[in-house]
């Protein structure tokens, strides 16, 4: 009976190693994030809706962060930020002249980071 138990344990260990080997194979497809350039310049009339979008690739899936003139943007009533696996976008429903500036999308995963900046010109 002890021999059977030992075989079971060995079988479990081998199964565990196979699982680890499969995980070790994944980093071959791993990649640092890469952004598509944001269209420049973005021109929008005052009072209109502004959408700035950035698309990225990377494995593991990167996280997105947005900055305006170097200051991180946070979600608010005015600023909507939506992100999914492939892209992120900032939306401002009714832009004002002071919304003009440089909007930077930063993507990051454990293998690296990338960023792209779009210049927004709000016209009165």
TrEMBL record:
PROSITE patterns: IG_LIKE. Residues 33-123 form the Ig-like domain. Residues 1-35 are annotated as: Disordered. PANTHER family: CONTACTIN 5, IG-LIKE DOMAIN-CONTAINING PROTEIN. Residues 7-18 have a biased composition (Basic residues). This is Ig-like domain-containing protein. The lineage of its organism: Eukaryota, Metazoa, Chordata, Craniata, Vertebrata. It comes from the Eukaryota. Pfam families: I-set. Keywords: Disulfide bond, Signal.
